[in-house]
Design brief:
Two copies of one chain form a homodimer. Chain A has 479 residues and is an alpha/beta fold. Chain A has helices at 6-19, 32-39, 43-55, 97-108, 128-141, 156-168, 183-195, 210-218, 236-245, 268-281, 338-349, 355-365, 368-394, 420-429, 460-478; strands at residues 59-62, 66-69, 92-93, 114-115, 179-182, 201-206, 222-229, 233-234, 249-254, 284-288, 313-318, 329-333, 400-402, 409-413, 432-433, 435-436, 449-453. Chains A, B: GO terms for molecular function: DNA binding; DNA-binding transcription factor activity; pyridoxal phosphate binding.
């Protein structure tokens, strides 16, 4: 008779099955009930078996779904390199839209492809049903809603709920300081139009999300790409050099928390320094704080606006990454530019419709939003870690990887300066859609990087996709 | 015994009551049942009495509400003067926002005032409950709607329904030719940004709605104000003179059907000439066709786009005047500028939320929209005529008036070049809010005009307000 307890013997059996590939990463482990029936063991032994394998890192428990096989842990990849705080390239007009939209169009032409390109969560991550219920309650209570003009600057209830949320990120805002917009994209448009004219120079993080570059291009603004750390965000030293070289910088645009695509979080000390620096130089500071609620920690990350003492910081954010991709709810707290932003918003698109605002206000004040965010943070952390482990396990040597402390994406430096657009094309052929680094800077400095979205629950399909992507990267890198 | 039939005797009695003011315009006539009880007459006599008074223009029947006292008919006022097709003033940057927003703010600070300023119908004119029901059906059928990203350029169902509607206005558009926007205001922003750069010259109607002037101001465009007829719209002769004088006109913006504030409808022959002229001159033609469905006639008015043979006409429109003030649903059919407008829309605000689009698509395909429009047209016609009669009855000599064949407003020329802003201030003091002509042109050419909204059902309160407004105009004109 075997000396080891029964659960250990069973665990060894399943460890071997995993090692042999009979159970692959992402597969569901037989249920406790199935183990009891198959091996004639007690409930307690079956449970102990699973817990033991979990403690060894071979299985993971998913709430209400049972145990699943985890990818093998291997040595982690080296992090993406830190930039030098050098003088940036000359300010230049952005000419990225054609490139970006061609890439987006090629991706959209393959709706069958596994989408690792979008910086957003899968629909299952969002409380759509609760919001639907809230919207139906609003409609039942206000049957005349669609017949009445929409409130100027947004509904009072939603703006009050946002002001409450802002407090958690250490911003002291009244409801009247907030203007509701069509997503963060409209907020950024308004902020830039408020402080800059066509031809003006705006400093941005490099790399940054292509949405911002497209906005700059469409507004006829010139961009100064400032080196940005995957750990601590925009380089304050490089920004200082840039401001000495360019007397006419009108604004700095940053994503202070969980920067896209790097996932960097600016330390609070950097935020304070940046706010003071911008004020002293009379340069408007525009923040896109869309991702702040998606960090690993339940303690909210302070906004740049929290360090604003003079109204010089324009705070922009939205809810379609954190709460509802199907709503286009963003907002702007324009500080001292409020009259001008109000005018621009009115002349550009008039106030937003009320229904989504009212439904979300109800969801926020009921506490549903906080509960949802706690779940979402845990789920995203899990998804980032699983994908990070898979990339580390499968990608060839020379790959560098950042698994950031929050948000939707991994930022990957390809080995041997491999062209990300070649990887994009080859992956799309293989039914996998990624975001090539070429989309994230006008300069071409990140052409050999990839952004991979971790927005979907981990699965065998994802594991296999990362494996195929890795094989493809290896083939292209050595060909 | 009186020789006249009983119903005539009763009619005389009530005619005297009306003449003496015991029954004032807008008052409800005692019901048929009340007449029977009060005077001991038969149903047929009571009915004959009311019909006789109606045939004499003293009463009006309102469906399901009974008979009401009409304002006295007097000689109609002379129409507002036709402009000379002269060379316009030099192109100029617009500086109207401050003036307009100060006037709007003064008005909004008096929420108790009777609002004759807004170019929109009262909530009771719109089928809010039916749209609420449609929205709730959409939410029940698509409970995950808020969790899914919104469709690019708008939902297919709504765009298809709009393409169907466009057919009625003689435009041949596919669903793909249409991009859904945040109201007509965003559509106009996109159209202007697509065809003009800051500093460029754009020809506009004069007078025109201040929303357009604010857009031009905010985009840094210069305006050429083209004389516009209250009957036939923009002067094609003046436009031709302007194009000879200015080689660099980038666009002409017109409201071809029920122009705001004039109520003019361009004859089809003018529309055809203008479309051909703009194409031959390579000047983009932008139309705001928001009011087309609100004419007296149930036959739809053709859009300018119906006369477009080369994609040179950009069609902009919306539903918040015709269907739902509480939705911000507009659209643009950008013709040959479609790729550029798609890019600008994406970079400016991303696609619209889906819910309103889906609800309206259902309402449109069910036939509810057409039924609603027939009712709305009849109601607005009634309201315009009642207010027109009251203005004609009460305003002092020298007033000129247009009661247009559709839409929301009356355009009134004040006697003796009286300042409309003085009238605005005095009226607001007296709890009546109007739109002074000073808001409708950069040039100041319409400072002695008023726009009065006929968006609300006629009532005794409205009759009294017009009477007070008239007294106030008379006092100011002679002081």
């Amino acid at each position: 008779m075997d000396a080891a307890p029964l659960y250990r013997q069973l665990a060894t059996h399943y460890r071997q099955a995993i090692a042999a590939g009979a159970l692959a990463p992402g597969d569901r482990m037989p249920s406790v009930r199935a183990l009891m029936a198959r091996h004639g063991v007690s409930l307690s032994t079956a449970l102990q078996t699973c817990r033991h394998l979990e403690s060894q890192g071979l299985l993971e428990a998913r709430p209400r779904s049972g145990y699943f096989v985890r990818p093998p842990r291997r040595a982690t990849l080296a992090p993406v390199e830190e930039p030098h705080p050098s003088l940036p390239d000359p300010a230049q007009y952005i000419g990225i839209h054609q490139r970006v939209s061609a890439i987006l169009a090629r991706g959209q032409a393959r709706p069958d492809a596994l989408n690792l390109a979008v910086a957003c969560g899968a629909p299952s991550l969002y409380p759509a049903a609760a919001l639907q219920q809230a919207a139906m309650r609003v409609l039942r209570h206000q049957p005349e809603l669609f017949g009445r003009p929409v409130p100027f600057n947004g509904t009072p209830a939603f703006r009050a709920a946002l002001a409450q949320q802002a407090l958690a990120a250490r911003m002291t805002l009244g409801a009247d300081d907030i203007i509701v917009t069509h997503g963060c994209v409209e907020a950024l448009n308004l902020a830039l139009r408020a402080v800059a004219q066509p031809g003006d120079v705006v400093a941005v993080e490099s790399p940054t999300f292509y949405g911002l570059l497209q906005i700059l291009e469409n507004l006829g603004l010139r961009a100064l790409e400032i080196p940005t750390s995957p750990q601590t965000g925009i380089s304050l030293e490089a920004l200082d050099l840039a401001a000495d070289a360019y007397a006419n910088i009108k604004a700095v645009v940053v994503v202070p928390n969980l920067q896209n695509p790097l996932g960097a979080i600016m330390p609070d000390a950097h935020k304070a320094r940046l706010a003071a620096w911008a004020e002293a130089r009379s340069i408007a500071l525009i923040e896109d704080d869309t991702y702040a609620a998606l960090g690993n920690d339940d303690t909210p990350l302070p906004a740049l606006k929290a360090f604003d003492t003079s109204g010089n910081v324009i705070h922009c954010a939205s809810l379609h990454k954190t709460l509802a991709p199907g709503m286009r709810l963003g907002w702007i707290a324009p500080g001292k530019w409020r009259p001008r932003v109000e005018m621009l918003k009115y002349a550009q698109s008039r106030p937003n419709e009320a229904l989504s605002q009212l439904a979300v206000a109800e969801f926020m004040t009921s506490g549903g939003f906080e509960r949802h965010l706690r779940r979402l943070r845990a789920q995203l952390r899990e998804q980032r870690e699983r994908m990070g482990e898979a990339v580390a396990a499968y990608f060839p040597a020379g790959t560098r990887l950042n698994v950031p402390p929050g948000g939707f994406g991994l930022w990957i430096e390809l080995p041997g300066k491999l062209s990300s657009e070649r990887v994009f094309d080859a992956a799309l052929e293989d039914c996998i859609r990624v975001s090539p680094g070429v989309m994230f800077a006008n300069s071409g400095r990140f052409d050999h990087y990839l952004r991979l979205s971790c927005g979907s629950p981990w699965s065998r399909e994802l594991d296999q996709a990362i494996r195929r992507l890795a094989a493809l990267v290896e083939r292209l890198a050595t060909s």
